[in-house]
């Protein structure tokens, strides 16, 4: 797969309908756009319909202002059997000053599905350079942490249910 198929860039002008009560862009508006760009990147990579399975480590580092041009950079960091981790970095640009700021980062787990809602296998990820190897290794670590957290959560739920009985 070429690098172009593993990455996607989307740029959106932040408009007044996206504002919160403070006059800045609402976090929910950004989350919707983040999900859309992660979907587009994953679907473009695997050529399948995908759904969002998880969202990890959303960091709103700085506010985004109405009137700024916001660019979303998405990249396939990791591929499992039917799942993919898509990393998304967001930069806001003040069009009057050309100042660019890294405002948001996060990781989506997207799962490929067929028309019957069953998971389907996705193409293996070819790592082309040292940066992609590091992204892949970091994604493996996040996956392991997520699985351990889910297992602990399930164990606690079982304990709570047993205590109630």
Question: Main attributes?
Answer:
single chain, 3 helices, Thiol Ester Dehydrase, Chain A, alpha+beta, 165 residues, globular, 5 strands, 33% strand, five-stranded antiparallel sheet
Explain how this protein is built.
Strand 3 (69-79) and strand 4 (83-93) form a beta hairpin. 36% of the residues lie in helices and 33% in strands. The protein starts with a helix and ends with a helix. It has a single domain, classed as Thiol Ester Dehydrase, Chain A. The model has no long low-confidence stretch (mean pLDDT 93). With 165 residues, the protein is α+β, with helices and mostly antiparallel strands.
Give a brief description.
The chain has 165 residues and is α+β, with helices and mostly antiparallel strands.
CATH superfamily: Hotdog Thioesterase
Which strand-content bin applies to the residues?
25-35%
Within the CATH hierarchy, at the fold level, what is the topology?
Answer: Thiol Ester Dehydrase, Chain A
Looking at the structure, what is the overall shape?
Answer: globular
Order of helices and strands: HEHEEEEH
Query: What is the count of distinct domains?
Result: 1
Rg result: 18 Å
The main sheet comes to:
5 strands, antiparallel
Number of helical segments? 3
Termini separation: 54 Å
CATH class: Alpha Beta
């Amino acid at each position: 797969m070429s690098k172009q198929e593993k990455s996607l860039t989307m740029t959106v002008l932040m408009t007044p309908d996206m504002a919160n009560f403070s006059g800045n862009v609402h976090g929910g508006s950004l989350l919707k756009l983040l999900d859309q760009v992660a979907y587009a990147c994953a679907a473009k990579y695997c050529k399948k319909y995908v759904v969002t399975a998880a969202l990890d480590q959303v960091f709103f580092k700085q506010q985004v202002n109405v009137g700024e041009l916001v660019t979303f950079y998405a990249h396939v960091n990791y591929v499992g059997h039917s799942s993919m981790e898509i990393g998304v970095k967001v930069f806001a640009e003040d069009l009057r000053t050309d100042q660019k700021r890294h405002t948001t980062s996060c990781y989506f787990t997207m799962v490929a599905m067929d028309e019957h809602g069953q998971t389907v296998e996705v193409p293996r990820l070819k790592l082309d350079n040292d940066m992609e190897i590091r992204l892949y290794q970091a994604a493996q670590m996040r996956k392991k942490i997520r699985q351990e957290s889910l297992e602990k959560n399930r164990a606690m739920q079982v304990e709570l249910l047993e205590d109630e009985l």
